[in-house]
Predict the 3D structure of the following.
Amino acid sequence: MSKNTPIPTRMLLNPLHLLSLGFGSGLSPFAPGTMGTLVAIPIYLLFIMPGYAIYIPTLILFTLLGFYLCGYTAKALGVHDHGGIVWDEIVGYMITMLFVPVSWMWIILGFVFFRLFDIWKPWPIRVLDKNVHGGVGIMVDDILAGIYAAICLQLIDTFIL
């Protein structure tokens, strides 16, 4: 199986694959990473609404869980970082949205910046993406893309708005 080979829908019957495949969004034949990031928006809203006392521990849990989930599904597919594994996009987007106001403007800006860094992969993201394997390797590039995007949002919030 290659990084773009369609994933059998029966994998969604396994709860671990269901999560790593972004509740099915990763099965999209068109831009599964973008679809996974779209799924991250309601997840972000669900956990940010009660406040940071819930959001931050959830983000930490999702990150730690992601190392296992992504590696588990990659192993089952026999492909490192298959495009359909999008739990890393969910976590990356949640990192992006740390400490910005909750509004549609920020949700959209966060989406755009996260996708930009996830696709562009500036240094050291590209290096880590190529050289770190397993669940950690799948997650690390999106964690860094989320951090880069979060920094951009903070700069916009501080110096522009």
